[in-house]
Design goal:
This protein has 3 helices and 4 strands, in the order E-E-E-H-H-H-E. A hairpin with a 4-residue loop joins strand 1 and strand 2. It has 93 residues and is α+β, with helices and mostly antiparallel strands.
Length: 93
Amino acid sequence: MVKGFNLGFLSMGFSMTLMLFAAPAGSTSAVDLNRVTVEQLAAFDGIGPVYAERIVTHRETHGGFASVSDLGAVWGISKKAIARLQYLVSVDP
């Protein structure tokens, strides 16, 4: 489930939704993209099982991630999503 806040600007004729990603309950540090499981990724708000499966499949097919920004090569992962995830995931050396 994605947590969001609707910031309405009715006088300006538009509204904006701020999407937030939250780490799974009990998580205290970023998870390593090259070791995380589908189930662990799917627990992040806003990722879900489809994107989690795409991330892990891409990792297995292409030999892992060198950086968090490499998530951009995964189909459907936007630059905005990467920016939100950069504090929740890492790539350990």
